[in-house]
Design brief:
mainly alpha; globular
């Protein structure tokens, strides 16, 4: 598997388009929507975290499985690494069985998702709209159409795993650039035409359809379709059972990320006014999340390569990628956080937004919490590359503790938005944010001298030397 500068370029391009989407669309959201509608949109975006929860770790498990197969794996193991065919030939019966397993899994869980969203979602939106002063019928229409959008996104979720697992990083990111461009064109037109909150739901839905359609066409090229047609699929039920061993552990560990990050706005909206939630969920948290994504662009580009190096037992290369990812992650966070803290309010004034950033102290804390999340994400991804999930029990406990403490804090104190930042940060610092990084350091035998050597040739290690 070759991962080069063009893959990295398009990954940054895709991330830039996500940011550009925010830069172009977010000011219009803040200007064209009321603070209540802006806050409700922030809640709706947070609901997307439900996909990760119900995916239950299968997306990243399927991604690894596809990488193993395209690296020449002759079988898929419940834990540990699969034997590799010496010639690197693709086992098409295994691939065909894995593809059928993906489709069957996501179709089945989509039915569960529909039931959850259209029952619990009814109770939730009615409670949130109790104090809503806008047009409640329009808000409900936007809400239920967004639930349909989420169901479609989940049903086609495995296309991401196919492209990334196969190492088609460049093509995957080109598709994201195109689909984000569609969103950037449609959303402003609808917002300026007065469609309000529904504008965002329509533009997001069209973007998703474009993305999934192109991803499917990219993966199933003529050669792949021909070989899959000739192959007799291995038992997809057996493959599901095999992958379940690590998938359910990944799913449980994802609870930590979902409940301590992505669904904070969902909890907050039950106790905090939507106008206040707009400053947190629709603006400040979104900027922190964009920074999180940008900081991991390099690592996500080279992660399929790292996984392949695991298969080939090239631990020195795994170590090099890991250390470089840490430096890039910290560098991106420092650069963007400094810019937002120094010039963020000026930007808000220039676009005449009625929704401000959180105060500088809370913003700095929000960036710090997001940075630790990013570094921990890098570490657990390295552990996961060898098809083991040692952290799932601890992360599950962390998720439960975080939810309990957060709900109690929101109910019995006046901390408000501060609690949405501080409580998850403290619970994560207690164990998650140091334990798994330490495990990777011990596993790869990383010494202080490795970091010193990296810094000594920083321009070369970051690819800045000609």
């Amino acid at each position: 598997m070759k991962v080069g500068k063009s893959d990295l370029f398009w990954n940054y391009g895709a991330s830039f388009m996500r940011v550009a989407s925010g830069v172009i669309v977010l000011p219009l959201i803040l200007r064209m929507l009321s603070s209540e509608d802006a806050g409700l949109w922030g809640v709706m975006m947070s609901l997307y975290g439900m996909i990760i929860l119900l995916d239950f770790g299968f997306n990243i498990t399927f991604t690894r499985a596809v990488t193993y197969i395209f690296s020449g794996a002759t079988e898929l193991k419940a834990e540990g690494l699969s034997p590799v065919h010496e010639s690197g030939l693709i086992n098409y019966p295994l691939l065909k069985g894995a593809l059928k397993a993906m489709r069957s899994y996501y179709a089945g869980i989509s039915v569960v998702l529909i039931i959850i969203l259209f029952t619990g979602g009814y109770w939730y939106i009615e409670k949130v709209l109790d104090a809503y002063t806008g047009d409640k019928d329009v808000a409900r229409i936007a809400w239920y159409f967004y639930l349909i959008y989420i169901c479609y996104q989940f049903y086609t979720y495995y296309y991401d795993a196919l492209l990334m697992g196969r190492g088609m990083i460049k093509r995957s990111k080109q598709i994201i650039v195109l689909s984000q461009t569609v969103n950037i064109i449609i959303a402003p037109i609808l917002l300026l035409s007065g469609f309000g909150l529904i504008s965002m739901v329509i533009s997001q839905s069209i973007m998703a359809i474009v993305n999934r359609t192109l991803a499917k066409r990219a993966f199933y090229d003529d050669e792949t379709k021909t070989n899959l047609l000739k192959a007799k699929a291995e038992d997809w039920k057996k493959i599901i059972k095999t992958l379940w061993v690590t998938a359910y552990k990944s799913g449980l560990s994802n609870l930590s990320g979902v409940f301590t990050n992505r669904m904070l706005a969902i909890f907050g909206a039950l106790f905090i006014p939507l106008t206040t939630m707009a400053s947190y969920g629709t603006l400040s948290k979104q900027v922190a999340d964009i920074t999180f994504t940008l900081s991991l662009v390099w690592f996500s580009t080279y992660y399929p390569k790292l996984t392949q190096e695991r298969v080939l037992n090239s631990l020195n290369e795994v170590k090099r990628i890991y250390i470089k990812a840490q430096f890039i992650t910290v560098g991106v966070f420092v650069f963007i956080a400094a810019g937002v803290l120094l010039f963020g309010e000026l930007g808000i004034q220039l676009i005449r937004s009625s929704t401000p950033f959180l105060d500088s102290g809370l913003m700095a804390l929000l960036f710090f919490a997001a940075l630790l999340e990013a570094l921990t994400s890098v570490s657990i991804s390295v552990l996961l590359s060898r098809n083991v999930v040692p952290y799932y029990k601890a992360q599950t406990i962390t998720a439960l503790v975080t939810v309990a403490v957060l709900l109690l804090t929101l109910k019995f104190t006046n901390l408000g938005v501060t609690a949405l930042i501080v409580v998850p940060l403290v619970t994560q610092l207690a164990y998650q944010h140091w334990r798994w990084t330490l495990m990777v350091i011990n596993e790869l035998d990383i010494k202080l001298n490795d970091y010193i050597s990296f810094i000594g040739d920083l321009p070369g290690n970051l690819g800045l030397k000609k």
